């Protein structure tokens, strides 16, 4: 599995912690930035990393901003992205098990390093259950198609 990493300045420090953690697990990643704590706009980094998931260059993503809210909103504008903002282990597990989240959003200013690493571990290891949840994902994809086709009219 190859992970797309992205952050803004508010998530930069935690992104660096997560990079080291992924390396310790032997998980491959591509860092789409940012590369410092200088102020930047999170949508720019969310888009680059989300495009890598949609293209198949990466399999999933971990996106981090100050709260995780903005970067998850930006990521979810990309059709096919299912970004889940998780502040605890249960949410991370359910985001994979029931929602097949392909992006984990974290808040760099609200999570401690150890909790963030635990969330990442569970999110990486938890499979999608499928079954009744697949029907719901198809409905979400249908919503995306509706709005894409409505814009083309």
What does this structure look like?
The protein is globular. Helix content is 51%, strand content 16%. The chain has helices at 12-25, 42-55, 69-75, 89-97, 113-125, 132-152, and strands at residues 2-7, 28-31, 60-65, 83-85, 103-107. The model has no long low-confidence stretch (mean pLDDT 95). The chain has six helices and five strands. By secondary structure, the protein is of the alpha/beta class. The N and C termini lie far apart (38 Å). Strand 1 (2-7), helix 1 and strand 2 form a beta-alpha-beta unit.
Q: What's this entry about, in short?
A:
It contains six helices and five strands, in the order E-H-E-H-E-H-E-H-E-H-H. With 153 residues, it is α/β, with parallel strands linked by helices.
Strand adjacency order, main sheet: 2-1-3-5-4
Kindly state the number of beta strands.
5
- Unreliable sequence segments: none
Q: What is the ordering of alpha helices and beta strands?
A: EHEHEHEHEHH
Helix- and strand-based class?
alpha/beta
**CA(first)-CA(last) distance:** 38 Å
Provide key terms for this protein.
single chain; 153 residues; 5 strands
Give the helix/strand layout.
Layout: E1 2-7, H1 12-25, E2 28-31, H2 42-55, E3 60-65, H3 69-75, E4 83-85, H4 89-97, E5 103-107, H5 113-125, H6 132-152
Helix pairs in contact: 1-5, 2-3, 4-5
